[in-house]
Design a protein that fits this description.
306 residues, two-stranded antiparallel sheet, two-stranded antiparallel ribbon
């Protein structure tokens, strides 16, 4: 299944529960993410530090897609429920609370694709899972800017440096901060004045689940949509845009950049909507809406990403 808006997601496969062990560990030369340089030095024995467990010691060359060609094409829509598989899934929940919901897709190599679910259309507050919608929106906006040049998208993400300001406040999630020159390393919350590349902000959003990073990246997507080929704007142009644009217009644009990509891959408005920024400053500057998601929508997202 080829979905252009998700192609770059492979390069940013950093969805680990502990950002210090996120992989691929050797992605620094492509992304410029300084955290990865430190991890690679640790892996090579050039810097003291704890190596991740074997499952976290993956290289970019180990990142393989399992739903390519005809197998992926067959999943343009989720398959019908497999009766045998459904019975096995149901057997897991006989004495559990009725609120449990699940969507399961078996894609084991050499076996038929099988699907089962339980209350998969039940709505939940997506919490940090909603940051995946921001990721899809970011790569969609990058494709708008450079429709035929993926290398320019990577270049922009490496070179666009963004200084943390009030958009990132308040926040408490800690992120890794590594100084390439001094090799100083700290794990702390984002502070006003911190400077990270767009790649690093995106990494903080996904691997460390930073709310500061999520709001910063979402803000950058609004600037991409507004300024187009003239992105990035100056700080003065950015401030003028948010000051002079009507609040209702900002809301419409904000909902569009994160939710339209979901609709493109068949996730309906009833299944998933990201409605508001992840920091109080972002919510004050851009009016929001209700956020909700379903297990089935997340399954659709994962299939589309592959």
């Amino acid at each position: 299944m080829q979905k252009p808006i998700y192609k770059l997601l492979l390069i940013l496969s950093l969805f680990a529960s502990d950002f210090l062990q996120a992989y691929p560990y050797d992605g620094y030369l492509i992304t410029g993410i300084r955290r990865l340089l430190r991890l690679q030095l640790v892996m090579n024995g050039e810097l003291r530090g704890t190596k991740p467990p074997s499952g976290g010691q993956k290289s970019i060359g180990d990142m393989l897609l399992n739903l390519q060609n005809e197998r992926g094409d067959s999943l343009e829509n989720l398959p019908p429920v497999s009766e045998d598989f459904q019975k096995k899934i149901d057997a897991l929940f006989p004495n559990r609370d009725e609120s449990y919901s699940v969507s399961v897709l078996e894609v084991t190599p050499g076996k038929p694709v099988r699907y089962a679910e339980r209350q998969a259309d039940r709505e939940f507050n997506p919490g940090s899972v909603g940051k995946l919608a921001i990721a899809a929106g970011l790569f969609t906006e990058l494709q708008r800017l450079f429709p035929d040049a993926p290398e320019k998208r990577i270049e922009l993400m490496r070179n666009r440096m963004i200084i943390a300001d009030q958009w990132a406040m308040p926040n408490h999630h800690e992120v890794p901060v590594y100084n390439v020159e001094t090799k100083a390393f700290a794990v702390r919350a984002v502070r006003i004045g911190d400077t990270f590349s767009l790649y690093e902000w995106t990494d903080h959003m996904l691997s460390a689940s930073s709310n500061a990073a999520a709001s910063t990246v979402w803000k950058e997507m609004l600037l991409m949509r507004q300024f187009g080929e003239n992105y990035p704007p100056s700080l003065e142009q950015e401030a003028e845009f948010f000051k002079n644009t009507r609040k209702d217009s900002l809301k419409i644009m904000a909902l569009s950049v994160v939710n339209d990509p979901l609709r493109t891959v068949g996730i309906t408005e009833n299944e998933w909507q990201l409605g508001s920024f992840f920091t109080a400053t972002g919510q004050n500057r851009v009016p929001g809406a209700r956020s909700y998601a379903t297990p089935r929508a997340l399954m659709k997202y994962l299939v589309a990403m592959e």
